[in-house]
Amino acid sequence: MKNLLSVPIKNDIYYIGTNDRQTELFEGMWPLPKGVAYNSYLVKGEKNVLFDLVKVNTVDDYIQKINEIVGEGEKIDYIIINHMEPDHTSSLKSILDIYPEAKLVTNKKAVAMLNNFYEVTDNIVEVKEGETIELGNRKFTFYMTPMVHWPESMVAYEETTKTLFSQDIFGGFGTLDGGIFDDRIDYNDNYLEETTRYFINIVGKYATQALKALKKLAVLDVELICPDHGPIWRENPKKIIDIYTSLAKQETIDGCVVIYGSMYGNTETMAEAVARGLSEGGLTNIKIRDITKTSFSYLLSDIWRYKGVILGSCSYDNNLFPPMNYLLTEVSHQRMKNNYWGIFGSYSWSGGALKTLKKYMEDGNYDVLDTQLEIQGSATDEEIKKLIDFGKEMAAKILDK
């Protein structure tokens, strides 16, 4: 059987990626309810070239797809490694066992990683920024994109087909279920949210470096984008470029997420009152999140995208509710910058939550509302009114009234 699972893309460029529906957490942290695709590409010609690999747990399917294109007696001449993360390289030894003469094309920072991860030190071709190399009848130019999102990250561009092999840039969570091209899928319904969450969880803290990379690549005439995760962009590559640029700039939307931590329901009631105030203040895009039931992956994504963020926490042992404390640690790593923040706290016999929330806001130099409520026990009718007014205050700030 030939060419049943591999997919021809353009001019002897083939998609040979795999889907992973078994792994539950990406990097051991981020939920994968829709799985994830590990994209790899085979460029066939005078020299056969692999672009990035797949995670080792899907290597059997991967080898089958390679065999559909590279016939008996043929070989893989080069493996281009744009990014060393194991979801793209852990199958390397399996591939080298089959094609031991394959040369590895990568950059200086990745060379040490090849040794550290896989004890591979031979047959390495080192490329530099802006360097063009000829592999058989193909020419590839390499551009370094450090910290997007590892220090050795780079991309490769083929001018003849105007193809950008972009590694994790322009990637997203989610398996490719039949359609692999942007014109063969419903991207907005099936992939946009997962792309957004992928960027914020994986790349967000390096948004400044991502913008630098996007600016560098903007000079290229790109008609086809082949990322290491998510769909291949052949009809409208500008769409994913614009999405990534907006995310890298943390362009927020007019809405507010209320994230609360509650042990016995009192703080949840307060969060409901705040949300009522947001609505009465004219805001329509409102989301309430229970921090004990929602993965930090989604919370960080909400905070990145919504202009308004309100945090409400009960006190726990004279301090902040532990899940809220952890969330704020992650928020500080993400370097959020374009939000309006509101905080409130509750306590039973001694405070702590609001005091710690205030310190986080001060240390991070966040734009926080002056009103900062702290309520003992369950909220009285008068305190509920204050919480509603607090929500209205945030709505007015978001809508600039």
From TrEMBL:
Pfam families reported for this sequence: Flavodoxin_1, ODP
GO MF: electron transfer activity; FMN binding; metal ion binding; oxidoreductase activity, acting on NAD(P)H
CDD domains listed in its UniProt record: flavodiiron_proteins_MBL-fold
Gene3D superfamilies: 3.40.50.360, Ribonuclease Z/Hydroxyacylglutathione hydrolase-like
InterPro entries: Flavodoxin/NO_synth, Flavodoxin_CS, Flavoprotein-like_sf, Metallo-B-lactamas, ODP_dom, RibonucZ/Hydroxyglut_hydro, Rubredoxin-O_OxRdtase
PANTHER family assigned: ANAEROBIC NITRIC OXIDE REDUCTASE FLAVORUBREDOXIN
Name of the molecule in the record: Flavodoxin
Species this protein is from: Peptoniphilus porci
